[in-house]
Amino acid sequence: MDAPGTPTLDEVARLAGVSRATASRAINGGSRVSDRARAAVEAAVRSLGYTPNPAARTLATRRTDSVAVVVPEPDDRVFSDPFFGRTLTAVNRVLAERDLQLVLLLARPGEEEGRTLRYLRNGHVDGALVVSHHRSDHLAEHLGELGLPCAFVGRPILGADRVAWADTDNVAGARLATQLLLERGCRRIGHVAGPSDMAAGQDRLAGFLDALPDRLPEALPEGGAPVEHGDFTEASGEAACARLLAAHPDLDGLFVASDLMARGALRALAAAGRSVPGDVAVVGYDDLGADHCTPPLTTVVNPAGELAERATRLMLARLDGSASGGDSVLLPPRLVRRASA
């Protein structure tokens, strides 16, 4: 029985203008609910602060002993990118210390985001970690509203002041990479940037551009520095590098915002008959398999395992009630020099 003053399902239904059965199906993820009705019910739930009874009983008696790792990326990306494997391994190791179970939620952008939020809202987990956050996800804002203990691996592009997060200083790291190319004597430096809807993509581009003006103003072509965007995948790095070479055949340096994209860029350079580092010096970012590239890749370390561990401990501190608000951890970058530059 609900405590006095606790919002009820009937009140949610009345506020949403739907039947009690429809409100129940919408809250519990049922399929026979129109988009309009579901949106009205979700707005009513937020307005009233309603918590479904099963979740309320769970919170009152015991925790679920599980934590969600939310990855808003396509399945094939999650299982092919070494960043995610290293992240999940580190998260699971920290949770195992507390005998907590990891629940993986693959939330592809679009209709699956609503399903993920309903799952988190209904008390199935004690906390959440978000990896690979995009602007359109709005996950920092949503999780902040839910009050669910959470933390982000990587700085959220929106709502970073509302949640805990752990990241490396991507601006400073990109500056290091670009400065290395300048010190090597490169005079026409291009950049394969990451997605513009992610903080890492924005920050690494900002660091690249920041390193250029004072050191190399005469080398910037009309219209600014040579930049093409990829999506942190190998195929996108190859395509972006090919576009750069077509537009700027005199490139002698290339900073690539991830090692996977750099692997693709190396393939594009080889196809164009450019030697590395003889014709074009290349620097990547992440240090995830960079030593297995041909040639081995000079790169900036993005310590995925340490970031995941830090974020997990930030989330656990919130779960224990020993921390609150938008704490953050920002690690300094480190450059690893190999044969590509």
UniProtKB/TrEMBL annotation:
Transmembrane segments: none annotated. It comes from the Bacteria. InterPro entries: HTH_LacI, LacI/GalR-like_sensor, Lambda_DNA-bd_dom_sf, Peripla_BP_I. One of its GO terms (molecular function) is DNA-binding transcription factor activity. This is LacI family DNA-binding transcriptional regulator. It holds the Pfam family Peripla_BP_3. The keyword DNA-binding applies. Keywords: DNA-binding.
